[in-house]
Amino acid sequence: MVVKMTSSILDRWYSPGAIRYSPIQIRYFILPFLYELQIGQWPPRPRESGYTTAIIKPPRIQTYQAGFVQAVEVSAELTARMAQLPPPAAAALLAIYGRGEDYQDYARAHNITGYGLRQLLKGAIDYCAGEERKMQSYSAWQAARGVEKLARAMQSPAPGRKNAVAA
Q1: If exposure means fewest CB atoms within 10 Å of the residue's CB, which of 28, 41, 115, 163 is most exposed?
Q2: How far apart are the first and last CA of the chain?
Q3: Secondary structure (H, E, C), the chain
């Protein structure tokens, strides 16, 4: 698979020890290189352009494994997390971020609104993110997350409105 080296990918290269399954790492590094990781190849560091900027590097973690083992473990972990997603969410993640399909074309082809696709992708990435795998099913996690959002919304009223709970 050939991955277009866009600035978002070039700016976000991670060593195996720096993978924490953050939404940015999943979206811009792991999914675009998922095939390479599955066959045990860690993506090479992009070439430097000669321009320098201040870069904050994560701490190095020393491991005693072969390089291909770390690549396969990262891909297997994300694949296991994605297996817990509903099939449409996993398919959308692979299509949009893995294969680089056009966002609008995908939404039209699957009869999804742009907003619906954004929400589907955001929920899927948020579920897959984190150093530890979620213990809840995706539907239970979404339900709990909805309750938390509702509670936060009730605690902080919109500007110019009184909070119904506080009144």
Answers
A1: 115
A2: 59
A3: CCCCCCHHHHCCCCCHHHCCCCHHHHHHHHCCCHHHHHCCCCCCCCCCCCCCCCCCCCCCCCCCCCHHHHHHHHHHHHHHHHHCCCHHHHHHHHHHHHCCCCHHHHHHHCCCCHHHHHHHHHHHHHHHCCCCCCCCCHHHHHHHHHHHHHHHHHHCCCCCCCCCCCC
Average the pLDDT over 146-162 and give the result.
Answer: 57
Tokens 């473990």 -> residue? 73
Q: How confident is the model at residue 57 (pLDDT cuts 50, 70, 90)?
A: low
